[in-house]
Design goal:
With 205 residues, the protein is of the alpha/beta class. 40% of the residues lie in helices and 16% in strands. The chain has one domain: HUPs (Rossmann fold, 3-Layer(aba) Sandwich). It is globular and about 50 Å long. One of its GO terms (molecular function) is nicotinate-nucleotide adenylyltransferase activity.
Length: 205
């Protein structure tokens, strides 16, 4: 099988996350897409809801699509191993006969290329990637300018540069909730209802 590993904060998961996953699944002929919520223990993340809440929202969002599956590898990891390199090592052991691709935006590619990710060099050397376009980022130039990325550019970076520039940021949705706004149709209805029921992201009450 060809499996995509879609890592994100999912704080909260949005309709664009789902649309992106579906598009990547189709274009890259994947068999499965794993949704991998970031752990709150990561020092490079500032998350506004609990791991449990974000896992539950992902479960709700993907429950009706058999192509999608929740992965809790990062959230369940011991302290110090909540990073992508360690997660991919575990997933490769879990799916030893399958081909895994870490799915990320071009902005993440820039960060890895700058050397700012934990075990970034090993991560790049030992894995394959599907990289989604982001406005204002030249993916080929990003790879060519970084020795870390350039030296590993043997076809492991699968670039998707058309039709994925639409953005609905989770931060925008959180801000709407925090100000008493109405971002209802920017995320799955089940997640909207979960957020309302559990009063997540609210600062105005």
């Amino acid at each position: 099988m060809r499996i995509g590993v879609y890592g994100s904060s999912f704080d909260p998961i949005t309709n664009v996350h789902l649309w992106t996953a579906s598009t990547i699944h189709h274009r890259k002929k994947l068999d499965k897409m794993l949704f991998l919520p970031s752990s709150k223990e990561r020092r490079d993340k500032s998350l506004m809801s609990t791991d449990e809440d974000r896992m539950e929202m992902v479960k709700l969002a993907i429950s009706e699509d058999p192509r999608f599956e929740l992965s809790t590898e990062e959230i369940d990891a011991p302290i110090g191993e909540q990073y992508t390199y360690f997660t991919m090592q575990k997933l490769k052991k879990k799916f030893p006969n399958d081909e895994l691709f870490f799915v990320m935006g071009a902005d993440i590619l820039v960060n890895i290329g700058h050397g700012s990710w934990v075990q970034g060099e090993k991560l790049v050397a030992e894995n394959q990637f599907i990289v989604m376009a982001r406005d204002g980022i030249d993916m080929l130039k990003t790879i060519s300018k970084s020795p870390l990325l350039r030296n590993a550019d043997d076809g492991r970076f699968h670039l998707v540069d058309k039709g994925l520039a639409m953005e609905i940021s989770s931060s925008y949705i959180r801000e709407e909730f925090s100000r008493g706004g109405e971002p209802r149709y920017l995320l799955p209805e089940s997640c909207y209802q979960y957020i309302m029921q559990h009063k997540l992201y609210r600062e105005y009450e």
